[in-house]
Design brief:
The protein is of the alpha/beta class. It is 28% helix and 18% strand. Strands 15-14-13-9-12-11-10-16-17 form a nine-stranded mixed sheet. A six-stranded parallel sheet has the order 5-4-3-6-7-8, with helices on both faces. Strands 1-2 form a two-stranded antiparallel sheet. Strand 13 and strand 14 form a beta hairpin. Helix 9 packs antiparallel against helix 12.
Length: 440
C-alpha cells in the first residue's frame, strides 16, 4: 500500500477526530472538529491572491496548508507570511511532483484558462479538488474533469459559494414544489463586466515585472507578450484567459434555477449581434438565449442572459426595483424574483397573491458552510452539493453561450455527441489544443 493511500484511509477512519464523522441527519450535518494536526487534511493551494487568498484561508481553517503556488512571487511571498514554513512553488506541476505524498487536497484559484489543467493533474494524482468558478475555460474541459473525478473517486467542489446558502436551497425547493406553476422562461442578468473588455490586442511591448513568471501565467494558452492589460485581474475579458461576464457570474446567478429545473444540455443557444472584438476580447455587453427541451419533469424553457448593463423588460418585475444582478423565473402561476448575485434571496410575485405562501418542507440538506462541505467530503462524508458531477454540467451549459458568441450564429447542440449539429465549424470553440508542456 502506498503512503498516499495509507494516509487517505487513515483520514477517513479517523474523521471523527478531524473534519468529522460526517453524515446527514434530518437535513442537518453532524460533524465533530478536532485539533490534531496529524489527523487533518493537508492542502496545497494553487493561486493565492484575490479569491485564492480566501480559499487558502478556508483550507487553513479546515486542515493544514502545506504548500502554496502562485506565478507571481510577490503574491506568493505575501501569503506565505501567514503560513510559516510552508513550501512555496511557482509551477504547480513541480509542486505536485515533489510533494505528492504530502498532499491530500488542492484548491485551484487561478485565472480561468488554468483551472482545468491544474485540476486534472491533481485529480490524476489522487488529490481531492476544490476549483473556483467557472469550473473550466471550455465546455470539453468541464466534461473531462467530471470524467476524471469519477474515475479517480476523489471529493470535488466548485467555488460557487451561493450553493451553500439556505436561501438558494429554499428557492430550489420552492420551484420544484411548483409554487409558480409550469416554468416557461428564465431571465438572468449581471452588472459585469467591471473590467476592461471590448478592445483589440494591446500595442507595444512592456517589461515583465520582477518576480512574475509570465510563461507560467500563459500555461496552456498561446504565447503572447506580457501586458499590464492582462495581469493582474484584467485577464477575465480576454478570450485566451477568461470567460467574460457570462463565465464569471452565471455559475452564481443562474445556479438556483439551473439546479431546480435541471437546465442542462440546451438544444440551442444564440447570442445577439454584439460579437467578439478582433478575436481578442468579449463584447462590452451581450444578450444570449438558451433553449431547453421538454423533460419528464418540466416543459420547454427559454433562458436569457444579459450583461453589461442590459436587463429584461421592466414589466416582468411587476413594479419592483431592478437589482444590478439577479434572476427572474416566470411560471404559469407566478414569478420568482431573486435580486441577488447568488440566488440566496428571493420573493414571489405578485406579492399580494403569495403573501400567505408557506414554503415547502426542506428536501435538501442545509449546508454547514461552503468550504466545510468540501472538507467533510474529503474526510469520507457526503459529496458537496456543488461537486463536479453537478458543477461540470452547469459549467457546460453556461460556456455554450461563449461558443455562440464566437460563432456569431445560432448553434444547435447535441449534448450526447458533444457537437453542434448545424454548424460543424463552431465545434472548434468547445475546446482548444494546449501548447507544448501542458496537458489536460
Amino acid at each position: 500500500m502506498t503512503q498516499q493511500a495509507s494516509r487517505r484511509d487513515f483520514l477517513k477512519t479517523s474523521a471523527a477526530a478531524s473534519v468529522g464523522a460526517a453524515f446527514w441527519v434530518a437535513n442537518e450535518p453532524k460533524v465533530s472538529l478536532g485539533n490534531n494536526a496529524l489527523e487533518k487534511l493537508n492542502f496545497a493551494c494553487i493561486g493565492v491572491e484575490g479569491k485564492g487568498s480566501s480559499d487558502t484561508d478556508s483550507a487553513g481553517r479546515y486542515g493544514n496548508v502545506v504548500a502554496l503556488c502562485d506565478i507571481d512571487e510577490s503574491r506568493l511571498n505575501k501569503k506565505a507570511r501567514r503560513y510559516k514554513g510552508v513550501a512555496k512553488y511557482v509551477d504547480y506541476r513541480e509542486m505536485l511532483d515533489e510533494m505528492g505524498d504530502k498532499i491530500d487536497a488542492v484548491t485551484v484559484s487561478t485565472p480561468d484558462h488554468s483551472h482545468a489543467p491544474a485540476s486534472a493533474l491533481a485529480i490524476r494524482a489522487g488529490k481531492h479538488c476544490f476549483t473556483q468558478k467557472p469550473l473550466t475555460w471550455s465546455v470539453m474541459e468541464a466534461r473531462k474533469l467530471r470524467e476524471l473525478a469519477n474515475e479517480h473517486k476523489v471529493a470535488t467542489q466548485m467555488g460557487n459559494q451561493g450553493t451553500s446558502h439556505d436561501g438558494l436551497r429554499e428557492g430550489v425547493e420552492v420551484l420544484r414544489a411548483g409554487a409558480i406553476g409550469d416554468v416557461s422562461e428564465v431571465h438572468v442578468w449581471t452588472n459585469r463586466p467591471v473590467w476592461p473588455q471590448g478592445t483589440g490586442r494591446p500595442q507595444g511591448k512592456e517589461a515583465i515585472p520582477e518576480g512574475l513568471h509570465w510563461d507560467l501565467f500563459l500555461g496552456p494558452a498561446p504565447v503572447r507578450p506580457y501586458s499590464s492589460a492582462y495581469h493582474p485581474f484584467k485577464w477575465r475579458g480576454w478570450l485566451d484567459f477568461g470567460t467574460g461576464a457570462l463565465g464569471d457570474m452565471a455559475c452564481h446567478t443562474a445556479n438556483m434555477v439551473v439546479m431546480a429545473l435541471e437546465l442542462f444540455d440546451p438544444i440551442s443557444v444564440v447570442s445577439d449581434d454584439t460579437g467578439i472584438v478582433e478575436n481578442e476580447t468579449y463584447p462590452q455587453s451581450s444578450t444570449i438565449t438558451f433553449q431547453f427541451g421538454k423533460t419528464d419533469k418540466r416543459g420547454p424553457v427559454k433562458m436569457t442572459w444579459y450583461d453589461g448593463g442590459r436587463k429584461p423588460s421592466v414589466d416582468l418585475i411587476q413594479g419592483e426595483e431592478f437589482s444590478n444582478s439577479g434572476s427572474l423565473v416566470v411560471g404559469s402561476a407566478g414569478t420568482l424574483f431573486s435580486p441577488n448575485d447568488y440566488g440566496s434571496q428571493f420573493f414571489l410575485l405578485p406579492k399580494e397573491k403569495f403573501k400567505d405562501y408557506k414554503k415547502p418542507e426542506p428536501t435538501l440538506p442545509r449546508s454547514p458552510g461552503h468550504f466545510k462541505e468540501f472538507a467533510i467530503a474529503c474526510a469520507g462524508g457526503p459529496p458537496a452539493m456543488s461537486n463536479f458531477n453537478y458543477a461540470s454540467r452547469l459549467t457546460e451549459t453556461i460556456l455554450l453561450g461563449n461558443a455562440a458568441m464566437k460563432a456569431g450564429k445560432k448553434l444547435e447542440w447535441d449534448a450526447k455527441a458533444a457537437k453542434f449539429t448545424n454548424a460543424p465549424e463552431a465545434n472548434q470553440y468547445l475546446g482548444r489544443t494546449y501548447r507544448d508542456g501542458w496537458k489536460l
